[in-house]
Design goal:
alpha/beta, Nucleotidyltransferase, domain 5, Rossmann fold, eleven-stranded mixed sheet, about 35% helix
């Protein structure tokens, strides 16, 4: 059985510090260990990260975001200088995480978890800058090669799902290919089309009405996929997807349709597009089980390679968390041309839900049908 670690940082931030709680236990079970810790204010780390974030956004890559006017002149910063800045950020992050009052958290890992365990690490945090932090670079993950981190809300709920009479034993994917100006979305489509045991529907540059109606589909969807241009609000509270050449939608404009889709069967949303933290925030507000986004602007090739690696691992039986980790780590090979490519993918988890496997998604239709028949039989016998 796998392990589950939940670290709650509350409403803390880098300027004021964080009170921390860690819970450890078997996955799918009540945690057996709870430990308290504390992280100090880290204004220098905050300053360093803001500088890194600003420079990264203006490195000049061809990315899956609409062109923005550079906020700073990055021509005076070489790639080597940016790489050194990135190393300094990692060092500063781990210095902060090795603070004495937080070291009990790390010691809890070492005492209660084995490097051979598959571990889901969920970090509950509200602050947008802490969400931008590349938590997978915490040196604890060097010791635990089968651990992967996800971000989560402080408050959460599980959506009650409707029981369908519709038989379906394939993974249903709604794939939205939005504004493709300057990027290649055909590769994303080909990767999805070659997956095993799927029933895909592709919407190419749809209107708002077409997308809304598709989300209301009575059969439901297992995976919602978006590829194209996107961006988030500065505060990280919401995000926009560019669904065609002229229209951009904020996630709240699809709220009713998304809620219906989640109630039916939607388990995973993947936004293979830029600057997705605001998109993830909007979807977690609706209590979607899992969301995968890019935390910063993402170069086209990096987005394609992540999707390729993730879909290969996940569809071949790897867990969702390990599929994300493997695909993310494989991006390191692109970092000569795209510095920090492996920092971009991030998973959001609803702690009230369990991550599905590929087979879970494929068999869900059969289980729904069986549940429907049992409920119907129960009502007949009660008459």
């Amino acid at each position: 059985m796998g392990k589950l670690v939940v670290i709650n940082l509350g409403e803390g931030n880098l300027e004021t510090g964080c009170l921390a709680t860690i819970k450890i236990g078997d996955d799918r079970a009540i945690p057996s260990i709870k430990i308290l810790g504390k992280l100090p204010p880290a204004p220098e780390l905050a300053k360093l990260h803001k500088r890194w974030h600003l420079i990264y956004q203006n490195l000049g890559f061809s990315v899956r975001a609409l062109n923005k006017k550079p906020e700073i002149n990055t021509s005076i910063i070489s790639r080597d200088q940016f790489r050194q800045l990135s190393k300094n950020l990692v060092k500063s992050l781990n210095t902060w995480l090795n603070y004495e009052d937080f070291r009990v958290i790390k010691e809890a890992f070492l005492k209660n978890l084995s490097p051979s365990d598959e571990i889901r690490v969920i970090i509950q945090v509200e602050d947008i800058q802490l969400r931008r932090i590349p938590w997978h670079l915490w040196d604890i993950f060097d010791h635990y090669r089968k651990a992967e981190v996800a971000l989560a809300e402080l408050t959460y709920d599980r959506v009650k799902r409707t029981v369908s009479s519709i038989i379906n034993d394939k993974v249903r994917i709604l794939a939205v290919l939005g504004n493709s100006d300057g990027i290649n979305l055909e590769t994303d489509r080909e990767l999805l089309e070659h997956l095993p045991n799927i029933e895909p529907t592709f919407l190419v540059e749809p209107s708002r009405l077409e997308l809304d109606r598709a989300l209301w589909d009575e059969k439901g969807w297992d995976i919602l996929f978006f590829s194209g241009h996107s961006y988030s609000q500065v505060d990280g509270k919401s995000g926009y997807i560019c669904i065609n050449q002229t229209d951009s939608l904020i996630i709240s404009e699809l709220k009713n349709a998304l809620k219906a889709s989640i109630e039916r069967r939607l388990k995973i949303a993947i936004f293979n597009s830029c600057d997705g933290l605001g998109l993830a925030q909007s979807l977690t507000d609706l209590h979607i089980p899992q969301v995968i986004v890019m935390r910063e602007p993402v170069p086209d090739l990096v987005a394609q390679e992540f999707l390729k690696g993730f879909l290969k691992s996940f569809s071949q039986g790897q867990s969702l968390y390990m599929s994300v980790r493997e695909a993310r780590e494989q991006l390191q090979g692109l970092e000569n041309d795209f510095p920090c490519a492996s920092w971009l993918p991030v998973l959001f988890q609803n702690p009230a839900e369990l991550p599905p496997t590929w087979n879970d998604l494929a068999l869900k239709g059969r289980r729904n049908r069986l549940t429907y028949l049992l409920c119907k039989a129960s009502k007949l016998f009660s008459i």
